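Annex B, item 7. Sequence and structure tokens for protein A, then protein B.
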Amino acid sequence: MEKEYKLKVPDTIQRMTEIYHIVGLWKTGNGNVVSLQQASYFICIFGFTLASFVGIWTIDDTDNVVFLVSVVLIGIVQTYRLYFIICEQKGIFDFMHTISINSTADYQTFCNANNKLKKFVASVKSVLGILFLLWVFVVSLPPIRKQLIFDFAFPWDYKTNEWAFWMGHAFVVGTYVISITICMFVMMIWYMMMIFVIKYELLASEFRNLGAAREGNGSVKTVENMTKAQGEKPSRSTKLTKSEAGETSYVKNLVEAIKRLATINGQLDEFEERFSSLFLLQIITSSICICGAIFVLAFRVHDNFFQDAFYIIEIIYCLGDIFAVLYLANEMMLSVDRLSYSLFESNWIVQTQSCKRNIIIMMEYLKQPRSFVVGKLFPMNIETFIAIVKRSYSMFNILGSFKQ
């Protein structure tokens, strides 16, 4: 029996799910009733979004109003994400567990996939580190300046009343902590997308190794090479027997690989259906936020350095938020496109004519392009990211002409 090399769920992802259970975002039971903790998180993030929305109509500073519009849009996305996390807990957790079960008999492919996961986890840790530094910035800066980072609607006058100031500051810090926790869920989605990339790469390795016997060190060799290595000159009957055995093995493994392909495609369809609305809302709101932040930075009338710093952070966050999902979706589609050539690299040349015809049909099927489209509007790929940046710049020019 061939040795199977299993890919483990990264410790960072496991800790994220544990944190969700510890803080009460995810419940350990199977009940559908929303807990008090979950309701408090939802009220807090929704209240902050509502306070920012009211501030748009009550604050006279134009630059701050534009910033609050961006905050409201981000708040809408975070509120929907929080709703999604709470209401779809069981489905998300079970789906992530299902797609995380992956193994391969090819040691080299296992190493490549494992290294790709390690690089992904390193990127996730970097993002978490940046979010933590921003948390330190949000916590420490207002007490030093005795002024909130930006103005928003609040029941009490936090500009003149010290108690109101500390309450407003605690409200902002608490909302930011909840927002970071929600961002962990976004990274779990990144992880699921990376898993699909790896799944298709493992399948591509199976296609390449069809018709090849595997040695103990993980390398492969064909039936002909084994015969040559043994120094034997097989008879005609022996050749026919080995040819039939090789074809039977090839077809059997090909059928198993096709079944696995159908399973992965079904899981990807479920992923697309489950998270499509989330991606659509994320892309639309982030695009508007990028345009608004660039507009304020280009035509600002204030001298508040810290507000400018937050505009820059907002642009980086929104660009990164869009780029991550579009890049990973693009990688998924590229992995699917490589399957046809991987099957061509298999040991099909020694198979019978009937087997070759089936292989050609399968190759043509694999050549059919697969697209990941959200809301029947945006194909998830790098071209969409470039188009978003271009459209944001065009909108910036239009707003600039009105400003002048």
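Protein B:
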Amino acid sequence: MSPTRDLLMRFYEAAVAAAHPATCLPPELPPPPPDGRLIVLAAGKAAGASVEAVEAHYLDRLGLPAARLAGVAVTRHGHGRPGRVIEVVEAGHPVPDAAGLAGAEKTLQLADSAGPDDLVLVLVSGGASANWIAPAEGITLAAKQAVTRALLRCGANIGEINTVRKHLSRLKGGRLAARAHPARVVTLSISDVPGDDPSVIGSGPTVPDPSTLADARAIVARYGLEIPDEIRQALENPANESPKPGNPAFADLDYRIVARPQAAFEQVEAKIRASGLDCLLLGDRLEGEARTVAAQHAAIAKEFAAQGRRAVILSGGELTVTLRGKGRGGPNQEYVLALAAALDGMPGVAAIAADTDGIDGGGGKADDPAGAYVDETTVARARALGLDPAAFLADNDSTGFFERLGDLLRPGPTCTNINDFRAILVER
């Protein structure tokens, strides 16, 4: 690994470490209930690591009897950790599968069993929307999979995607809190969405939902989505409206965000400056089409180079890709490919973009790449192999491009998620 690539990877790893459950969860865990059970319901890419942190805290540090602890955690395939008391289920993401369906049913059963003396501890992280798949009445798993694929392909942002999801579920959009009522519910979340909106993180299973069925229908119409008839009928059914503010289930709402992208990026910024480099933090909430944002960032890098600045251009958020080709990839890989094309071998500039969960798009496998790396040699090496960056970009085949060059990043599942990480190093 080149020194430049190693440096950029160390910045990425610092962001991941700042949001790992082992770091951010223990200080926020509530005391166990005096008499009842502690019921842990977790979902998302950090769910497995959260179970480890929870069991270590309550069983080992506090000596809570195992008989008073119950729970189930649903996480992405490859992100699981062995639980001693709490069951850990690995399930599909971003497209839900039968394992997620079974895990969500166990989650709802435990929520339904909660009594007034119990404490329901809900742990939400990025990926929970896909992992907790509990279709509303009359909706099949196949139909939920179809609408998920359509939403992912159309270029909708995460808020829009989750608005539709919340109105097709028996768990999302505040419904989990309603199922657990009258037990006390405490939610701790690791945010992976721009703006840290609790109603968007994991599709807000324990908070009031400000969005409506009409909003969901408007999103389907805006993107011209072809959806199964049962989905269309469900979005017309008033029974699928989500719980709103004022619902008794939210009377004693305790919701805390234990890790935010902004805090992680501020730690990385400090690390960059400590290494002797300047840093431009563009924010942790960037959204938009990956290739469009890449062109904007390439222009900033060129300006820095012209000024002779040694700096890192840092950004987070969640970019999107409107699929028009038939290739493989994800928004981080597409961003880096578009960045390489825009820089066209510009000396002294290198960059990485990677999803902090360790997996960027792909087929949902644990060994899918997290992102990719580029430097001033990328375009020349590609052309020497007969590869045209523009052609690969047109086919949305960023994985195929960087696979041939050996520049894919494969850290494996990180067991957390604060979304995209992008860093451009300008050394001239």
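Comment on protein B: The chain has 16 helices and 13 strands.
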